[in-house]
Amino acid sequence: MRVCVYLESVNLLTPSGFPSAFRNQLQALQTAGVKVTTDPRDRYDLLHVDWTAPKSLYYLRRAKRRGIRVVAHAHSVGAFDMWNSFTLSNRVAPLYDRYVHWFYAQADCVFTPSERARELLLAKGLRRVAVVSNGIDRDRFRFSQAKRDEFRANLGLDRFTVYAAGNVFPRKGVSDFIDVAHVLPTVDFIWYGYRWKRILTYYPEMHRRIARRPPNVRFAGFVRDTIGAFSACDALFFPSQGETQSLVVLEAASLGRPLILRDLPEYHGWLTEGKNCLMGRTVEEFAELVKRVSEEEPLRAALSREAEALAEAHRLERIGERLRTLYEAVLEGRDVTWAEKGVQRAGGAPHGQMKR
User: What pLDDT is stored for residue 32 in this prediction?
Assistant: First the structure.
């Protein structure tokens, strides 16, 4: 079995999580002993496309004409994860939604990172959908005290610090992040991620909030050394309003950072509130959770241990085995019923069938 895993325009997608998920797939497949190419002009038995852009569509349709099986990876499930991002995204979202589901329908199987994403895809009429966690490189994402000291010195941090990571969009919960910081002036808040030009993210209210943010909030921009940047902070506070799975959460978990998240359906089934994370819905609830984590050392320690256990369940070796099993099923055209228990913790899907 030789598989082509193809991500079009990797450099263009750098600000998103697509390239990280793509690299994770390649490394996971290497651990599973699967032969891989990233060039769709090569010879291969199965094509795995990670985006829905024009070249990806071209290679998908070419593969189908040649009788080659195709997997489409649904990192995006349509309008759901396009709202409140770039300028005019809300107007474009319905068209984008129709296009991506048409794209996915042409594949022999669709992979997606969470059970919630799978449910949304099934609701659109897709029937061959399997859950595959984005996974995490546990060997690489390890807490570093040396990098923590370096980053804290460079950033001038000397207090309890929480962080979020991602593009600075309303959907990511920027306003709530700032509002919680207003409530907790003795805690530092850092946001890592691109701040696009205003014309590209024309949300006047969000920009006003950022301009009037309290002194304990910092927007540090995009950072390449995420291990150092995240190690410098004491907890992840990620109030995003919608995710498919979120690599940010898995990366923070692998570093042993306590997780404070919005209570989203996407997290149910693989995250457990009060065990490996804390969840809230309002500014008041978020502020109370951040305050508790900052003040209660035993709580921090317990959340840290459970976060690492969560990351361990999503390590790339497990994802590689999952991908290999699914590829074999797709190539053989077998009907497969995903009936594992607790598979979100092992990178799999709880149910569903793939039919030719």
Answer: 97
pLDDT in tens, 129-174: 999 999 999 999 999 999 999 999 999 999 999 999 999 999 999 9
**342 burial type by CB count under 10 A (0-12 exposed, 13-18 middle, 19+ buried):** exposed
Q: Which CATH class is domain 2-135+315-346?
A: alpha beta
Give the integer Cα–Cα distance in Å for 103 and 109: 11
* Distance between CA atoms of residues 272 and 322, nearest Å: 23
SS3 for 217-277 is EEEEECCCCHHHHHHCCCEEEECCCCCCCCHHHHHHHHCCCCEEEECCHHHECCECECCCE
- Residue 290 CA, chain-centre distance (Å), reads 22
| Count of beta carbons in the 10 Å neighbourhood of residue 214 | 13
Q: State the pLDDT confidence band at 336, using cuts at 50, 70 and 90.
A: very low
What residue ranges in the chain does DSSP mark as E strands?
Answer: 2-6, 35-37, 46-49, 69-73, 109-112, 129-131, 161-165, 188-192, 217-221, 235-238, 259-262, 278-280
Boundaries of every domain in the chain: 2-135+315-346, 145-313
To which CATH superfamily is domain 145-313 assigned?
A: Glycogen Phosphorylase B; (3.40.50.2000)
| Secondary structure class of 165 (helix, strand, coil) | strand
The tens digit of pLDDT for each residue in 40-90 reads: 999 999 999 999 999 999 999 999 999 999 999 999 998 878 778 888 888
2-135+315-346 with 145-313: one CATH topology?
yes
Quote the pLDDT of residue 11.
Answer: 60
Half-sphere exposure of 95 (CA within 13 A, CB side): 5
- Residues with Cβ within 8 Å of 257's Cβ and at least 6 positions away in sequence, in order, are 143, 230, 233, 234, 235, 236, 304, 307
3-state secondary structure of 29: helix
User: Has residue 343 got a pLDDT over 70?
Assistant: no
